[in-house]
Amino acid sequence: MVDGLEARLARNPANVDGWILLIRSRVHQNEPARARKALAEGLAAFRTRPAEAAKLRDAAARLGVSEN
User: Fold this and answer.
1) Residues 20-62: pLDDT tens digits?
2) Which region, left, alpha or beta, applies to residue 64 given φ > 0 means left and ψ of -120 to 50 means alpha?
3) I need a labelling partner for 35 at 20 to 30 A (CA). Which of 23, 26, 48, 64 fits?
4) Distance CA 49, CA 7 (A)
C-alpha cells in the first residue's frame, strides 16, 4: 500500500496531503531514511509553491522528520 502511494506520487507529485501521508507511513514503519527521502522529494515537487512546501515541512516536523 505504501509503495503504491509512493508510485502514485512519482507520477503525480502535486499532492501535498499524499506526501504527508507517505512521510507518516514511513515513520510508522520505522523507516526514517525513507521518511526523509519522501520529505525531500515532496519539497522538490513544491519548490515553486511555498505554501504547500511550508505545510509539508510543518507536518514532517510534527512527525519528527527533518530535512537533514
Assistant:
1) 999 999 999 999 999 999 999 999 999 999 999 999 999 999 9
2) left
3) 48
4) 22
pTM for the model stands at: 0.94
Please report, for the chain, how many H helices and E strands are present, in that order.
Answer: 4, 0
- Judging by beta carbons within 10 Å of its beta carbon (0-12, 13-18, 19+), is residue 58 exposed, middle or buried? exposed
Q: How is residue 27 annotated by DSSP?
A: H
**For residue 68, what pLDDT is reported?**
75
In angstroms, the CA 51 to CA 40 distance is 16
Burial (CB < 10 A; 0-12, 13-18, 19+), residue 63, is middle
**How far, in Å, CA of 37 to CA of 43, rounded?**
10
